[in-house]
User: Fold this.
Amino acid sequence: MKVLLKHTLLASVVAVTTAAQAEVNIVSWGGAYTASQQKAYQDTYKDPGSINFINYNGGLGEVRTQVESGNVTWDIVDVLPHEGRVGCDEGLFEELDRSRFAPAPDGTPMDDDIMVELPNDCVVPQIFWSYVPFYKAGTFKDAQPTTIADFFNVKKFPGKRGIHTWPNALIEMALLADGVAVKDVYKVMSTPEGIDRAFMMLDKIKDHAVFWSSGAKPLELVQSGEVSMALAYNGRIGAAILSEDAPFVTVWDGQVLEEEWLGMMKGAPNKEAAMDFLIHASTTQSQAEQAKYINYGPMRASAFEIIKKGEPWFHNGKNIMEHMPNRPEVMPRSVVASPEWWADYGDSVGERYTAWMGQ
Amino acid sequence: MALPIYATTGQRIWHYTYLAFCVFVLFFLVAPLVAVIPLSFTSSPFLNFTPEMLALDPDAFSVRWYKALFGICDAVDDSASTMCHNKWMTGAGRSLYYAVCSTLLATFLGTLAALGLSNQHMPAKRAIMALMISPLIVPLIITAAGMAFFFARVNLSNTDAGIILAYTILGMPFVVITVTSTLVGFDRSLMRAGANLGGTPTYNFFKIQMPLIAPGMISGALFAFITAFDEIVIILFIGGPDQHTLPRQMWSGIRQEISPTILSAATILVLFSVLLLTTLELLRRRSERIRGITPH
Amino acid sequence: MSTAPATVDGPLLTADGVPLKESLQISLRRSKMRALLLVLPPLLFLIFLFVIPIGNMLTRSVDDNLINDVLPNTFAAFETWDKKSEPTEAMFEAFYKDLRDADRTDIGKASVRMNYANPGWRSLIKRTARKIDKMEPPYKEAFLKADDRWLDQDFWRSLGIMKDRVTFGYYLNAVDLDYDYDKNIIQQDEERKVYNLLWWRTIKVSIIVTIACLLLAYPVSYLLATLPMRIANLLMICVLMPFWTSLLVRIVAWMIMLQQNGVVNDTLVAAGVLSDENRLSMMYNFNGTIIVMTQILLPFMILPIYSVMKTIPPSYMKAAQNLGATPTLAFIRVYMPQTIPGIGAGCILVFIVAIGYYITPELVGGKDGRLIGNMVAYHMQRSLNWGLAAAMGTILLCVILVFYWVYDKIIGIDNMKMG
Assistant:
């Protein structure tokens, strides 16, 4: 017994300490997303062996701890829009020399090629993902849902609705469905009346709502017919359609886009190598390459040209363009989430939403 | 419990209703775990019994998800690359490492505490006992939150050492309880006899007390082990990306990419728990035999 | 051995000539010391890694030091303000100094805290702090150029809530109350009231689960206690197996059973009890939480009741029946009262564990099955409102400690048994 125990211990210690040492540590979300980054950026890099991907659960907690203690082991972090801004404001990320990034094939500098306004000099473009409504083909007999207002209309399109258990994107969608113009959404949301208006819209689906909190759930709900329509991450819907041939139909109206950025840790141990990799990862070609493995939209507009010309672009020989959340055709009816608004009002709206769910 | 032959019809009905109810409760306890096993052999990526499976169509069954669990990916699975990676195995390795280390530490410390607490001259016995057992009572979410703040300050968060220490705290109460209860039947005059015969206290401990409390230590250690092996709340709060344990992999499996891989993991864990349970039952019998308590 | 036996008036001596009383005391003291020395290492371990961290967390529920350290000048200037007229240049200058001198991370943390007092502070501070290096007097103008909300008196007045280093604001928030700008206690806005509902729901779920466990456990415990040992042990495995199986495995198992197209619904539809459209929703809601928690906590109820029942001699029931009681009467009047210690132990144990539950409601609770523990986790990890998380944790802990104390008084923790 003792010998056995000793061996087990020894084996596990060995297993723990033999993790490969790489030059540049990149921290990302794991799953299919990291896999797509590895294929698009690491495998095409001049020295793939020097890149090491690590998973994390988001947030700036660990970033802050490392920078404050001076013991920085990560080099590059994949962050959400809010963290990208706070991290730069608080000096947790390096400000980067923007002139070193590669321009688009037509010569446009990278920062002008990004489809949103650059929030600061720390962040490097990654992708857009979105919250978007979808349904299973054949669910509705005659008219098919085409707008976000249809999602909130249970009379015209009967059945339950799958929505998530936090308010992000739902407030925006409710206002869009209520007729607010895309450009006015955050203006309206910044008034108490605007929030009331959004909740009045949400009340219309309240009794028909099935709530989900994990990304795979809405697909199951729609697949099994438990709900007739649901909101989901566009990447999930696309993956189901592209890889599993699921009969899902996305309603490309009133989606809410979220940004995804890369940032370099302040005091990153391998600054120069990390910068070199960031330059590689943000080129138009790399951004387009990532779309071969996942249907998140490249942040650089020029990448779409490559994808369009290269169709069928997805790695299994399917067209990817129609699954891209930020393709030019759907942008006029999409809202890019405002991290500033959510930083200010996220807590109070979150509480109100929780109260609303539990009523 | 058998029904007397002279029972009335009413009594009979009552009796069988009662038995049926008990069967229902036992079924309620075990059925979900049993349902996992056949479903883990599904060939579809969904978590429900397909009509083909119910018709016992051999094509509806496969070991696809066991392969994924063990990190054996074939071409078919490669498209769904998220479902196939070796995180399950490395996670199990991690969990085993934390569980073994924390169990050893918890067993040592818990046994010390139990020996001290079972001394009839121990001052403030009740209060200390209450404190020693409190990690079982305080909700894990509170323990986890407290440790998250404190460990970050003393540079223990996101470290293996931090997790092992935290799990030791969770495991210790079990050892204290089980060892204390084996000491309840312990005859102190045995130690005195040993001393009379010239044994040193240490010698006497290992020769007299140790064999008697050993079953208690082992069953306490088993509790501590399974607690650490199965722990999910603390790890979510103080574990970093490098501390990716099996429960954490299951957690992200349930929350993000639910696939039947989790069922194959579950099946193995159910069998594992049956094994543990059998071990424990054998230990209990042995302990009773040594202490001269005959089974009723 | 020529020594005379000790006389009545002389002290009783031991073989080595020490008075017996003293010798016994020495040995008692030594025994006490040995016991203490044994207990000391585990006790210190527990205090350092468990008691102190939790105590430390609890202090966060009233701690408002950070903001006072970041904005000392501002609060000083705030005291001179009449809270009616337009904010003065002196106040802006004080704010400027504070923002200029403070660490950027601390400003970020302070702005998060300020945002609880008045939503909007975060972006206001952020926008202003970005321009702080280039600012020149007059600061009022410079601030207004950075963001025109600086004239909004609500922001300035909300400083009044944060000016003390000890705050009870988080406790108020935890029970749907709030401070107004003058630190009077007021009701939280109607549509933001969630916590009382959650407290109530947590208690409701714990009570329902406790009762459900008792109702299911009692008959089974009786069966186990009265069956022959060999069969009882076999059935006991059914009780213990879930107890020993990973919590997450059990939750996954229940998902398969209870989901819309799960085993239970499929079976009921196939049996014709339900139509396909009317499948029961038993998962991701209140019902799901209740069902799953009941199964998970059932062994905690069965084991104490069973162990008490084992000690009741069957002859008592027979005696009662011999004396003329019907079996039912004998059961209620003679047997049941003797099982009350087991019932008490089981109920308190289940209730204590249920009230702090987090993982199960998180995964199966859906919209209306989530409990206060989930809210603690939410504020710890997502909203990062640690003060509120600590305040809710403290309240929860106090409730549990009261029950723990009751349990100790009635049953005694040393009677706790495992397996």
